[in-house]
Design brief:
The structure is a single chain. The chain is of the alpha+beta class. The protein has 2 domains: 81 residues, Acid Proteases (Cathepsin D, subunit A, domain 1, Beta Barrel); 184 residues, HIV Type 1 Reverse Transcriptase, Chain A, domain 1, CATH 3.10.10. 23% of the residues lie in helices and 27% in strands. It is built from 9 helices and 16 strands. A 5-stranded antiparallel beta sheet has the order 7-16-11-15-14. Strands 8-13-12-9-10 form a 5-stranded mixed beta sheet. A hairpin with a 2-residue loop joins strand 14 and strand 15. The chain is globular. The protein starts with 9 loop residues before the first strand and ends with a strand.
């Protein structure tokens, strides 16, 4: 129960914050919202949602009250509880290590999808835009340049000296005192064709969980960055900085086609496994009891299904939880 009403809340361990719509906030009796340090949210598909404000809501979960901070938005959406808040509310437990007998064949870090290169589908008569570099505050320049150098070293981006059709602006996002490198690919997205692979909705996944009592949640390490780009697509994903232009060598966040592409790849690899639900880079394994669950969650079994034609590093965190009301 949140505020004065009982509402449905979805747990998203990959979310950076908890979110509810202004309509829901009014329903549960939230008065005026406070000013939020977050101005807008960016979804997996690159859509930007303006934040109306922040609300601290007293939520009663299993008879215990927890005060949770929600970002309130003017868009109709499901109420989302981020991973940290779910841990605080004792809905999930983070297990930072996977036991040796379940991880003997895994490689940690971030990998690269083999035998696959993403080549973007471009509309006829595209109209790309070349943006000049945006100014970066002097106090942040060294940190941003260090992060760019790190991404070059990891093979995520590379310096670009040749002419390109598109040049997108670099966007610096500060979160929890850290700087994150983002690219505003809005103008590139206008010229791309989407492959329209269906994304699993929370309602569809919830329906298939009927009868399950034990759950494990896995997510891919730097999931999008594990997908290499073709040379042409790499050049379309070029961005400008004060130190020159860089091109993405791996699938960047903010590309409109990225969520459906990643869902398609994960479904091809793991979609035939029993008791496994896939939502982009989140993998939910569920079963009616512990014995069946341990069969489903064999790390060797998961990795074997990742291997045919692929090489991708999987585990970043592992979580277990029982059903909640």
């Amino acid at each position: 129960m949140c505020g004065r009403k009982r509402i449905k809340v979805a747990i998203d361990t990959g979310a950076q914050c908890s979110v509810m719509s202004a309509k829901t906030a009014n329903l549960i009796g939230v008065g005026s919202v406070q000013k939020s340090p977050i101005k807008r949210l960016v979804t997996y598909s690159g859509d930007k949602i303006l934040v109306k404000g922040r609300a601290f809501v007293d939520c009663v979960i299993r008879g215990e009250t927890f005060r949770i901070s929600f970002q309130v938005v003017d868009k109709d959406c499901a109420t989302i509880l981020d991973g940290d808040s779910a841990v605080k509310a004792k809905l999930i437990t983070r297990i930072q290590q996977v036991t040796a007998d379940r991880a003997e064949d895994s490689t940690y870090g971030f990998g690269e999808l083999k035998e696959y290169i993403y080549d973007a589908d471009v509309i006829e008569n595209p109209q790309f835009v070349k943006h000049p570099p945006r100014k970066i505050p002097h106090r942040s320049r060294d940190t941003v340049k260090t992060e760019l150098d790190k991404m070059v070293q990891l093979g995520v981006i590379e310096p670009c000296l040749e002419p390109t059709e598109a040049v997108s602006p670099l966007v610096i996002v500060r979160r929890n005192g850290k700087i994150r490198i983002c690219i505003d690919l809005t103008d590139v997205n206008k010229n791309l064709k989407r492959r329209e692979f269906p994304l699993n909705s929370l309602e569809e996944i919830a329906a298939r969980l009927a009868g399950s009592k034990v759950f494990t949640l896995l997510d891919c390490t730097k999931g999008f960055w594990q997908i290499p780009l073709s040379k042409r697509t790499s050049r379309l994903c070029t961005f400008s900085t004060p130190w020159g232009r860089y091109s993405c060598k791996r699938l960047p966040f903010g590309l409109a086609t990225a969520p459906e592409l990643f869902q398609q790849i994960m479904t091809q690899m793991l979609g035939d496994l029993s008791g496994v639900e896939i939502s982009m880079d989140d993998i939910l394994i569920h079963a009616k009891d512990e014995k069946t669950h341990f069969g489903h969650t064999s790390m060797l079994k998961i990795i074997q299904h990742m291997r045919p034609g692929y090489s991708i590093n999987l585990i970043k965190k592992r979580e277990r939880r029982s059903p909640t009301t």
